[in-house]
Design goal:
L-isoleucine transmembrane transporter activity; plasmid; about 25% strand; alpha/beta; binds adenosine-5'-triphosphate; transport; about 240 residues; ABC_AA/LPS_Transport; L-phenylalanine transmembrane transporter activity
Length: about 240
């Protein structure tokens, strides 16, 4: 199977804090990978390393067979890497549609009707079409999360990085978001999903990795990983924090 992403011995420290410590793993094209780990383990930093807003101290990152370790964030975005942020970051004074258009024009490089068509398609997939003309600042938390997804999808990603998108939602809202993410996955987009809401992860991902102190401490089939005593101990800590 073709690998869309490969991290090879990626390390980065802030002073004494290692946010990535010899991190190595691969992601197959079309695969959904879950990432679990306690607060401060380095999960968001790993996304920053993949998207190019943080440079590794050492190691190599490949995307679609190309070494992107020194590529700029803008170049990686154009190549098809998109992310959602843990704290939704819409342009609050703009409408939902205008927010989508920013991503379609600036990240996917589209203009005119092509950009509008993509935005409408994505807004339908993310169930925000009926909110298209509302200001983004007034959306509920679920719809702000849906807008995060919309903005990422309007960049036409091959790889979608989701950062704790299920946090803070009610059970019913979480189920509805899981369904949308399943549909995105089924459309062929490769996904890496950092999440503390473990049942949401388990409903979607085919493989899990667990990170602690920037190190990968477990990797494999989700149920087997969750059953391991080492991960159970960390998970109890995560459940207490969540
Ligand atoms: N730019 C930075 N400068 C200094 N320290 C940083 C920087 N970015 C992150 N850190 C520190 O690195 C550690 C890892 O942070 P990171 O946000 O990657 O963890 P995380 O696993 O995503 O945590 P959470 O689950 O709380 O979001 C934390 O101790 C954080 O304070």
């Amino acid at each position: 199977m073709t690998q869309i992403l490969k991290l090879d011995g990626v390390s980065r420290a802030f002073g004494a804090v290692k946010v990535a410590d010899e991190l190595s793993y691969g992601l197959a094209e079309g695969e959904a990978l879950g990432v679990l780990g306690p607060n401060g383990a380095g999960k968001t930093s790993m996304f920053n390393l993949i998207t190019g807003t943080l440079q590794p101290g050492s190691g190599r990152i490949e995307f679609a067979g190309e070494d992107i370790t020194r590529h700029s964030a803008a170049r990686r975005s154009r190549a098809g890497i998109a992310r959602s942020f843990q704290v939704p970051q819409p342009f609050t004074h703009m409408t939902v549609f205008e927010n989508a258009m920013v991503a379609a024009t600036q990240s996917a490089g589209l203009s005119g009707h092509a950009a509008e068509r993509l935005c409408l398609e994505v807004l339908e997939r993310t169930h925000l079409l009926d909110k298209a003309n509302l200001p983004a600042g007034g959306l509920t938390l679920l719809n702000r999360k849906r807008l995060e997804l919309t903005r990422a999808l309007c960049a036409k990603p091959r790889l979608l990085l989701l950062d704790e998108i299920a946090g803070g939602l009610t059970e019913a809202e979480c189920r509805s978001l899981i369904q949308t993410i399943k549909e995105i996955h089924a459309s062929g987009v490769s996904i890496i999903w950092i999440e503390h809401v473990v049942h949401a992860l388990m409903a979607v991902v085919e493989r899990l990795i667990v990170i602690d102190f920037g190190r990968k401490i477990a990797e494999g089939e989700p149920k087997a990983i969750m059953a391991s005593p080492e991960v159970q101990e960390i998970y109890l800590g995560i459940a207490a924090d969540a």
